[in-house]
Amino acid sequence: MRTVRPFSLLPVRFYKTHTGKTRVLKLCVQLTDSKYINIDSAMVRIQFENMDTVYKQGIPYFGQIKLLHPDNTPIPHEIVQLHLKDKVVGNYTTDIKGIAQFFLDTSKITNPNITLKVTYKDSENCKVNGWMLPHYPQSEYFVQRFYSKTKSFLKIVPEMGELRCNQKKWVKVHYLLNVEGLESKTYMAAFNYVVISKGVIILHGQHIVKISNADGKGIFSIPIQVSMELAPSAVMFVHTLHPGGEMIADSAHFEIEKCFRNEVNLKFSKESSLPGSDVSLHVSAASNSLCALWAVDESVLLLRNYNQLSAQSVYNELYYRQLYGYYFKGLNLEDGPKEPCLKHEKILHNGIYYAPEWADFGKDTYDLVKAMGLKVFTNSHYRKPELCKYSRYPEYDVEENLGPVDEKMVLENKFTNVDSSSPDDDEQFLSSISLMYQGEVFSPSSTSKAHDMMGLGATCPLC
């Protein structure tokens, strides 16, 4: 920031005396003012784009880095560095749009959260009074760890651009299903998916993958027919049930081209013509389409751009809703914690005592379904644990305030969310899940347990 020093304006008037000499008369008028001018010494703008707020251990973390001039024009073919824990984890080159794609190996990352930093060039450290030196800023991005009891994850590969209508899109899904600790290392995993747009479930299906000890990690693709029913945006939700009793899921948001059921094409018979000459206008559309034409001189649009008909203006007039959270008619329908809280009690391991740390467990599957307005009816585990608020009184259940709690019951239910009425065998357990959206219960299974859950949905206040 620089300050412009005050200045004075002294008006001067010339006049002649009776002797013919010229004299100068200075008027005593003085104007003083000061202004402040911000001078930005940043030579570039660097930022993260299309980033996830969470990472999943063992699943590649994807993102973009954008490098721009101060006037927001892209800087192509330049190298930027990605840092993690003050170490360079990769060098990436920007494309013609100034964007560099990157992915991060998370197999060895176990921190509750990480901070990614991107740099372009080092700034000069020397300082001289009165001089401003070029500055190359850095950018940081905070990422949390995603919670999973079985260390199993799903990741839908996001689409960076807008999906075009009337085409089939293959959406890639990364999966990591940990079979460590299971008696049977091989099983058939059913990946169920739903696609929601404008508050309605548009598509749903299932994909089967054989999971084994040597092949618990991989990629599969889900075919999606992009149509106007998905416009202007859609959310995909994919989930499966782990034999260890945990619901594994992920969601992704897709931008869809603003298209219509009845497409129309318009063109003139000639690209250019003389004033006063005849020209034809060709309009083609589907049968039984109501078409409206609007013609105006192009110079009118140059003076004032208003009332132009476009796909965006039409969609702006349409009403559609995207649900979020569990608030309905002033009521908070959020589920309460189903498990007893984790006490701050010490655990002896290899002669050393350990205690739970007061750290954030990150986001979980419950956060995903809540963000979509989905209700899940399941006896599987899909919520992160919580530490008791007042650990100085371990003999009391402070969350429910129900008095003394049986120590044996707390230890048996600390890391499980299975109902007492849930079946014992894994095959029946894996079928116990139903989703409810807008009062409609969707169950990928036809078992008796799933039908019982559909009965629960009929009495839910969201219906």
Automatic annotation (TrEMBL):
This is Ovostatin homolog 2-like. Residues 154-303 form the Alpha-2-macroglobulin bait region domain. InterPro entries: A2M/Complement_sys, A2M_N_BRD, Ig-like_fold, MG4. SMART domains: A2M_N_2.
